[in-house]
Design brief:
heterodimer; A: 397 residues; alpha/beta; 12% strand; B: 361 residues
Chain lengths: 397, 361
């Protein structure tokens, strides 16, 4: 039924080059990279090539790239690895709008005795740096702020944060999962110490990610085993995933600025189209944003029906704040931005990527507008009245 | 009933009945959308879920939907469910009555919510896996009928549906027996085919409703505090540990040594008393029902009807002795044991559900 895919920030379709890079490894390219025979050497060579390629794209050294099983794992290794390398009561700092992979890792450290500080955001969702010097003076074991917010697409002032942390001698981590391929992610330009990446947000495979660990950064591993990935991700390496990730990154970064201009045009078209409706707000509109994400709040619609109704209308989108069992919670990110709870639940995120076409965006703008109007009509029309007798709560009241 | 292709929203609990209901609708060529209502907070119940309302239920419903190649959505109705069903459940027990939360959920939460959401997703009708049937009155208006399988018939739980909703309802299992439903589930290789029946109240998966009430009301609440066991003659013969744990007709928990078989006859919440008596004293012939809901033209005074006073009980003949707005007096042809305040009394004429109400104290 669904025909227009606007959920690239959840998972982008696998790029042809990423599929091609993976297939030979999955087929004839077996062998354990740790084995000292021809099969092992071939696997090792492929893994080294993938690592070198990713390192070059990021401006890192090969030895600074650790492949992980995704962005969440990279975030966990960064946050909990830093905490374990420090005192149990260490101070940890993150923003109010982190992805749950960072937010919950921080919370787990806090449960274990860490002292947690949160950097607030302004009404656009941009991290406020006023209190930063004071926090840095407390010598936190880690400051972690995401590069691009996964819900709103708002870009955080990572260069400034990284520089100020560097000056203070504090380790800085950024979750760059939504930033890679959208903004210029170069660790030789920006002095971050730790940086998390995910392959499937840029057209690579699901289940593969990476953590950049700047040389000299003290970090304790979370998993224990055979010492692969410099001990930070022991276990036999996912060679196919690494190769495919590197190929996707090549493709995504080769054309980054032209592609971002293209996506910006598409995004602006969709946003302009929906803004002709009343009661629509683009969250973070006043901030510097990734051109790959639009995040809307629609007043007077039942929030929990937005995504299913869009699915029915043929547009794949996300809300970004539902748990596995479907429990509806207002978006933490929007609450931190000061958005009122109803609007923080009446949300839809549309995200664009390499396969998005102008035709799709034109169609989507129309389908989404029609759907919002229909939902509002039905919501305003009221519903079936309760059984007269059961309308009150409790007997004889 | 319309036989054309329709867009149907089907409530899928993750049990075998609603799974087969969805499958039958797909087989009939309808465009089917599955939904699971998340009614209460699973995180409060970490124990592996025995009933089909748990998180496992959501996963099973999703797997069946995947197998049927239909979309499946989860809707969180926890807030409404807590307000309309759980709060009422607790208030009724606190007042010394025995509620039917499923009736309350069907009438107030589940169906209304499904219909509203269904409309928004472009559905014309909604369906569930209840064992009940839709019929037509002579004037063409839709009626609610018992399911053909008398062992499974669930019309008792559906008397509280808003009558305006009847035209939008489908019960695909109404003509089937439970063994037939299981056989269909096996044929279609649905993952829920062998799933056991859920008998408990979905938000009390361990069946310990007194424990649940303690969590909601606090252990100090009068309904959960010790009081006197008194006979119908007014004699105190022992102590009980909270009247909320006693339902009319119950024998358990009364202790021995009374010299005769004793049953709970009722309770007096204001005095914290549980009244006990002999089997004969349990018999009642006349009673009143309130909070009426009619799904067919209301029964009038003097009319002969059949009534069912609990799930799985047989319907018995009764005469309407009083009919006022919101109140109906009933006289049974033969007295019944354990006419229980708070329970639903459903009024039938044959298979036709006329309506129902709650048994008044």
């Amino acid at each position: 039924m669904t025909s227009i895919y606007l959920d690239h920030a959840a998972t982008s379709p696998l790029r042809p080059a990423a599929l091609e890079a993976m297939l030979p490894v999955l087929g004839a390219g077996y062998g354990n990279p740790s084995s000292a025979h021809a099969w092992g050497r071939r696997s090792r060579a492929a893994l080294d090539e993938a690592r070198a390629s990713l390192a070059e794209l990021l401006g890192a050294r090969e030895s600074e790239i650790v492949f992980t099983r995704g962005g969440t794992e990279a975030d966990n290794v960064a946050v909990l690895g830093r905490w374990r390398a420090a005192e149990p009561g260490a101070v940890l700092v993150c923003s109010m709008v982190e992805h749950s992979a960072v937010a919950r890792s921080m919370a787990a450290a806090a449960d274990g005795g860490a002292t947690l500080h949160h950097l607030p955001v302004d009404e656009q969702g941009v991290v406020r740096l006023e209190g930063l010097d004071e926090l840095l003076a407390a010598r936190p074991a880690l400051v972690s702020v995401m590069w691009v917010n996964n819900e709103t697409g708002v870009i955080q002032p990572i260069a400034e944060l990284a520089q100020r942390c560097q000056s203070a001698g504090v380790v800085f981590h950024t979750d760059a999962v939504q930033a890679l391929g959208k903004v210029n992610v170069r660790v030789d330009d920006v002095p971050v110490d730790l940086l998390s990446l995910s392959a499937h947000k840029i057209g690579g495979p699901r289940g593969t990610g990476a953590l950049f660990i700047r040389k000299g950064t003290e970090l304790s591993p979370l998993l224990h085993g055979g010492g692969q990935e410099r001990g930070f991700r022991p276990g036999t390496e996912d060679v196919a995933g690494a190769m495919s990730f590197a190929a996707a990154a090549q493709a995504a970064l080769a054309e980054c600025s032209a592609e971002m201009n293209r996506l910006r045009t598409l995004r602006n078209h969709l946003e302009a189209g929906l803004m002709t409706l009343p009661g629509v707000r683009i969250n973070g509109a006043g901030a510097d944003r990734s051109p790959a994400i639009s995040h809307f709040s629609f007043s007077d619609v039942p929030g929990e029906l937005l995504i299913p109704a869009l699915d029915r209308a043929g547009v794949a989108a996300s809300s970004g704040s539902a748990c596995a069992s479907g429990a509806r919670q207002p978006s933490r990110v929007l609450l931190a931005m000061g958005v009122e709870p109803p609007l923080a639940m009446q949300v839809a995120r549309f995200s664009y990527g390499w396969s998005t076409t102008p035709e799709e965006v034109v169609d989507a703008a129309r389908l989404i507008s029609d759907m919002i109007e229909r939902l509002r009509d039905l919501a305003g029309a009221g519903s079936v009245p309760a059984s007269p007798a059961l309308a009150s709560s409790g007997a004889e009241r | 009933m319309s036989s054309g292709k329709q867009t149907v929203l089907v409530a899928m609990s993750g049990g075998v009945d609603s799974s087969v209901a969805a499958a039958l609708l797909v087989e009939q060529g309808h465009e089917v959308i599955g939904v699971t209502m998340k009614t209460f907070c699973y995180s409060e119940n970490d124990a592996p879920s025995k009933t089909c309302c748990g998180l496992d239920g959501i996963m099973d419903a999703r797997r069946v939907a995947d197998r049927l190649a239909i979309p499946h959505y989860v809707f969180d109705v926890e807030r409404d469910f807590t307000r309309d069903v759980i709060d009422d459940f607790v208030a009724e027990y606190a007042a010394g009555r025995t509620p039917n939360p499923c009736v309350r959920c069907n009438g107030n939460t589940k169906f209304r919510d499904l219909l509203k959401r269904g409309e928004m997703l472009g559905c014309e009708v909604i369906a569930t896996g209840h064992y009940a049937r839709m019929g037509r009155a002579p004037d063409g208006s839709p009626t609610l009928l018992r399911g053909l399988d008398r062992n499974k018939d669930q019309a008792y739980f559906l008397w509280g549906l808003p009558p305006a909703m009847l035209p939008s309802l489908r019960f695909p299992l109404g003509e089937l027996t439970k063994p037939e439903v299981r056989a269909r589930a096996r044929e279609m290789e649905l993952v829920t085919a062998e799933k056991p029946e859920s008998q408990e109240i979905c938000f009390v998966p361990d069946g310990d409703y007194v424990g649940f009430l303690r969590g909601r009301l606090g252990a100090e609440h009068p309904a959960l505090s010790p009081g006197a066991l008194v006979t119908t003659g007014g004699e105190t013969v022992g102590e009980h540990d909270g009247y909320a744990g006693f339902t009319v007709g119950q024998r358990k928990g009364l202790g021995g040594g009374h010299g005769r078989r004793l049953y709970v006859i009722g309770s007096r919440p204001a005095q914290r008393e549980v009244v006990i008596g002999s089997a004969d004293e349990l018999l009642r012939r006349e009673f009143e029902i309130r909070e009426l809901n009619w799904l067919a033209p209301p029964a009038g005074k003097g009319e002969q009807v059949e009534v069912q006073i609990r799930h799985r009980a047989a319907a018995v003949a009764a005469r309407v002795t009083m009919a006022e707005p919101g109140k109906l007096g009933l006289a049974l042809d033969e007295p019944l044991r354990a006419v229980t305040p708070g329970q639903s009394c459903v009024v039938f004429r044959g298979d036709l559900v006329l309506g129902g109400g709650r048994i008044a104290a």
